[in-house]
Amino acid sequence: MNKTYNNFIKKTLISIKTLALGIMILFISVATAKAQTCTGTTANIPPNGTITVNGVSVTSASTGYVSQFGAFSGCSGVNLSNNNLYVGATTGIDTGPWQTVLTFSKPVNNIIILLAAAGGNNNEKFYFTSNGGAISISSTNNCYSVINGNSIFSGAGAPPSPGGGGIFQLTSPTSFTTLTMSGLGGMTGSLIGICSASIVECTAGNTAVPLTGTTLNNSANCSATTVNLNSLHTATAPGTSQLVWFTNDTHTGTVYATPTAATVGTYYAYYYDSTNSCYSPASSAVTVTITPCCNAGNTGPNIN
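Above: the chain's sequence. Below: its structure in token form.
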């Protein structure tokens, strides 16, 4: 009886754990799925011209086949507002190169684009570059699309309507003021919209943090075993950004936790805008050295 009862309890606990794990995975999946979304509308960016979105002026300059198209509903819940960019309409795949250069009056980052009506029998190819470093692309909401570095290949095998596409976030190591979008064109072309809500100023700026020096040591107090990195920064962090330090020039990993008590090593300063999750370029490298006190003193020994 006890053995049967114990087995029943074990099976029940396993079932509860399995259910809890399933709920947790579902929660994580739902949360992740919302990571790249577009709240509101796509910006009415012309092929050539200037508009202002959220206080940021956006100037566009296009070559090749780039025009405008009306509202469109694509796969994966993509909803393009009126007058999105219609790019790459050609008579064959990869036969109609196009390019649109967007220049922002203020530094931006994490721009979200909506892509629709891509491909059919073949992928259409989209490339993205910035003046803030190599673009990386992330997406949790797309269909018939493959991300490859700074490129999106989309549409192969998709039904003619609505074609391939999705919602993609474009991120650069530092904030940028120029974003170049280009492609090779394909058949009847495709549609690109830029989420208005993602066009916001990165207050961290696109200028490296100014420092008063590139070395620190404990020469003023040989008994000290740490130094204050922040003593090299006398400027004011722009906007709502804050000064942070890393041990690398790509702000990867975690923020250096004790900049006012830094040990031996090499450090880089950044301005960080936590609201928009974006960084300024890195400062010059700062080298910290610690030299122990010489306990021999500065007086010779007294020898009788």
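The radius of gyration is 27 Å.
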